[in-house]
Design goal:
GH; six-stranded antiparallel beta sheet; 479 residues; seven-stranded parallel beta sheet
């Protein structure tokens, strides 16, 4: 991006800041629709404290690597600078596995991750920075060494203990009561902002709804999400098909994009998650350049209706097909191309209520070329996604844009005004996402021109005075 375009983008972003009536991270109207989520595993993020590195082996992909709560605190500005408002940190309970899923005891914090006081420090720092913390909570498939398995009174809760995994009967009212107590007590003890449920198979929807209602009584906001499909009253819903649609649309150019065109405010939008292959894996199979693929995919997600959701490491194009590959320790010494892009586009989204929750009108959608309008009573944007292998053009009428308007491209384009036929012609290079802000058409800035002329005349007058005084001094020196 050249200097002129950076200047235009800065002006537009500052304008969005001035016209926005809501806080950046929606503190005044807490709703998950105003948020964007960055998902990570504590153990795989950053190792700050060596004293809790118990049986840690960073060379073994199946072992604990040493990441801890204070490591997230250390690197939290990295997440904040990219514009994400929620950090999802996975399960934090005593566990047999680095991902926290093989829970041993819901009443204990995993000591390799840190102390309860350090966990509270993580939450405190996040809140101070205007961010929220969501904690993973598996509802089943715990460690066979879970304390419930050691209690004879709870043996009838357990239906299976194969391969080191303990499965419980989620339809059992006693199990439901115990899980509900564990989650509610945890939410009361620590000022978390939400729960990400997992291992939902076998859980009655009525139980999930009661559980969600109970945790929402603890504080507001208290978000409830899951990366599994469910009919429960979650704040945003996951669809595996939608994830696949995004992945398949953006792994290469010129691919069908119909599946991504009808997202709603209640959808979790993502190109991968920590239980799937990395998006980079699929784009690499296509012999495409992953950073470009990631930028155009995330740029689209951040401009569409829904809740953006990104796995840690996406900003460094982390690759992997299986967990041992895709759950790498985060590497912060990398090129910042994707990071800076996310920072720019998230900055615009966070300052614009319209881009977060406004209405949407689809204008075009054909094999990677998607154009849609985001609008509200306050502002209007035209979003153009050119995920094709060629430059694309679209002509928009005043019926779409409005009368006597102009379009200001935030990233790649200059000001677009209507031609003699009243058409707004948008031309966009390949593999680019552009957001155009619709503004009132401005004529010549008379006051600015007059001020510049006056300044020029004063400068010329100053030079004349200096020249005359110099000439007079030279004359007096000769005398």
């Amino acid at each position: 991006m050249n200097v002129k375009k950076w200047f235009v983008a800065a002006l537009l972003i500052s304008g969005l800041w001035l016209t926005s009536t809501k806080e950046t991270n929606a503190e005044t109207n807490a709703s998950i629709h105003n948020e964007s989520i960055y998902d990570l595993y504590v153990d795989r993020y950053f190792n700050k404290v060596v004293s809790n590195d118990i049986n840690v082996n960073a060379q073994d992909p199946n072992a604990f690597a040493g990441g801890d709560f204070l490591g997230i605190v250390e690197k939290m500005d990295h997440i904040k600078d990219m514009g994400f408002t929620i950090i999802s940190i996975g399960p934090v309970f005593a566990t047999d596995t680095y991902d926290g899923k093989r829970v041993l005891d819901f009443n204990e914090i995993e000591k390799r991750f840190g102390t309860p006081e350090e966990f509270q420090e993580l939450i405190k720092v996040a809140h101070k920075k205007g961010m929220k913390i969501v904690v993973g909570f598996p509802l089943n498939n715990f460690s066979e060494n879970h304390i419930w398995n050691m209690d004879p009174k709870k043996k009838d809760w357990i239906v299976n203990t194969d391969n080191g995994v303990m499965q419980v009967d989620l339809a059992n009212p006693e199990v439901q009561k115990e899980l509900e107590k564990a989650i509610v007590d945890f939410a009361k003890k620590y000022e978390i902002d939400g729960v990400k449920f997992s291992q939902l198979e076998g859980a009655p929807t009525s139980f999930l709804n009661d559980l969600i209602a109970e945790i929402k009584e603890v504080r507001n906001p208290m978000y409830a999400i899951a990366l599994e499909e469910s009919d429960a009253n979650l704040d945003a819903h996951y669809s595996n098909q939608l994830l696949v649609d995004f992945r398949e649309a953006f792994k290469n150019t010129d691919l069908p994009s119909e599946g991504i065109a009808s997202t709603t405010d209640n959808d979790l939008l993502m190109i991968d998650q920590l239980n799937t292959e990395r998006f980079t894996y699929f784009s690499a199979l296509e012999n495409m350049f992953p950073p470009t693929r990631i930028k155009i995919a995330m740029g689209t997600i951040l401009a569409m209706p829904g809740v953006p959701y990104m796995s840690y490491g996406t900003e460094i194009a982390m690759n992997g097909q299986i967990p041992q590959e895709s759950h790498q320790v985060m590497n912060f010494r990398v090129d910042e191309d994707i990071t800076n892009y996310l920072k720019d586009i998230n900055s615009i989204r966070n300052k614009s209520e319209t881009l977060r929750t406004g209405k949407t009108e689809l204008l075009k959608n054909e094999n990677g070329y998607v154009v849609f309008k985001r609008y509200s009573d306050k502002e209007t944007f035209i979003v153009v996604v050119n995920n094709t292998s060629a430059t694309q053009r679209i002509d928009l009428s005043s019926n779409v844009v409005g009368e006597n308007k102009e379009l200001r491209g935030i990233f790649e384009s200059d000001i677009v005004r209507p031609d003699n036929d009243g058409q707004y012609r948008l031309v966009l290079d390949r593999e680019v996402v552009e957001i155009y802000q619709v503004t009132d058409r401005k004529g010549l800035n008379t006051a600015y021109i007059v001020a510049m002329c006056v300044a020029y005349l004063l400068f010329v007058l100053f030079l004349v005075i200096v020249w005359k005084k110099g000439k007079q001094k030279r004359r007096e020196g000769k005398e």
